[in-house]
Amino acid sequence: MEYRQLGHAGLRVPVLSFGTATFGGTNDFFKAWGSTQVDEATRMVNLCLDAGVNLFDTANAYSGGKAEEILGKAVAGKRDKVLISTKATFPTSADINDYGSSRFSLIKSCEESLKRLGTGHIDIYHMHGFDANTPVEETLDALNNLVQSGKVRYIACSNFSGWHLMKSLSISERYGWSKYVAHQAYYSLLNRDFEWELMPLGIDQNIGTIVWSPLSSGKLTGKYQRNKPAPANARVAQGGSPVMAAANDDDRLYDIIDVLQEVAEETGKSVAQVSLNWLLQRPTVANIIIGARNEEQLKQNLDAVGWNLSVEQVKKLDAVSEILPAYPYWHQRQFPMLNTAPKLYGGNR
Question: What is the DSSP letter of 82?
Answer without folding.
Answer: -
